[in-house]
Amino acid sequence: MPFETVLLTVLVALIALGFGYMLARLATARRQERDIANAEEKVAAARMEASRILATAEEEARAKAEAYREREEAALSNRRLELSNLEARLVQREETLEQRASNLAQRERLLIDREQELSLSRTELERLKEQARHHLERVAGIDIAQAKSEVLAQVEDEARREAMILVRDMEIKAREEADRRARRILATAIQRLAGEVVTETTVSVVTLPSDEMKGRIIGREGRNIRHLESVTGTNLIVDDTPGAVSVSSFDPVRREIARLTLERLVADGRIHPASIEEANEKAKAEVEQSIRDAGEWALVEIGVARMHPELINLMGRLKYRTSYGQNVLNHLVETAHVASMLAAELGVDPTPVKRAALLHDIGKAVTHEVEGSHALIGAEIARRFEEDPAVVHGIEAHHNEVEPRTVLAVLVQAADAVSAARPGARRETLEAYVKRLERLEGIALEFPGVEEVFALQAGREVRVLVDPGDVSDLEARDLSRQIARKLEDDLQYPGQIQVTVIREFRATDYAR
Fold first, then answer.
1. pLDDT tens across 323-337, in order?
2. How far is the CA of 338 from the CAs of 196, 345, 353, 481, in angstroms?
3. What is residue 422's DSSP assignment?
4. CB 392 within 8 A of CB 451
């Protein structure tokens, strides 16, 4: 193909492309013009709509402002009216207060005048009373101080008499009610208890197979008996009693160990220092085991679940301790049973009551080692082993070294008295018995107006004969109370003592 043709073809194509491009640009420009026209129409329409909305909003705002202005004007008018009314009331109240102040001032002046009149009248009355008093003193021949003392003495005598009558009536009612309830409660508790009657002494007797054994016990030049006494800490009494040797000691545990030691030696037949020491060690182990078993038996018997091991051992030691012939451990168990039953009868929780009753004499296990009352010692021991404070108080108060403050303490006291005072529970030596009766009569004879005193029923009743000229009927009742309190403070005794004051007036004359 010739070059000119190709060139022409290229030119035509370029012209066609340029013409197409121009047509496209023209179409685009026309489309943009149409879009601009449409946008301008939309803007005009939006402006018209905004103008309409603005006009509507202005109209609504104008209406609301007018309504708000009308409401505020009405409220302001009402507020002005209320202020006007309040001002009127304040003025009226001010006038009322001024009137009241005027009335009060007038009343004050009247009161001042009346007070002056009363002062004058009082002065005149005092003067007249003084004149009357002097006149009465001249007529009666006695001054006012003496008359006052006589009147006071008369009033005091009458008040004392009325008080004695009131106390007598209250005591009679209280005693009847207390006796009735106490009989019921104690009878219910005691009839449920079956206790053993046990008496022990400070001497144990060991039976020997023959009198030849006495010589072995004594040994050559007394060697065996001296060694036996030094090891056991007891006294051996080898006398003319056939087939028996006595072991004596104030310590019941030591006495029991010595008794078991001697029985082992007698059974073995070989008695010399080495066998004595061997038998003593075995007896100690046996007694210690017996002490633990006795303490645990007491817990099982009463139904107490937990207790410090030292307290159990101390309680077991009381198996070998007696008080007026009564085994102390048995007494503790018996007291705990009685206290539990008394608590149940009164509707009190029996658990702490029987625990306190079981431990109330625990101090007797160490009284020969520690000085002081066994109640206070026992309370200190229980406190040291972290017993409940109520239980500790029941222990320390069961002999009134500490004033009982709880029902538990009173129940422990009552149960202790029931266990100690029941028939056959305790015994005392003839010498102590006689001294106690003499002291009993001597305390009652110390009171004025008492002529004779008789101790009856083994010291459980005291009959006091008084001079009827010195003691009246009401004073006799007060005297019985004073003697009873004095016996409680100065004398120790099991159970209770009945004090009866007898006042008998006899008039005697002779016909001639």
1. 766 788 888 888 888
2. 14, 11, 10, 29
3. S
4. no
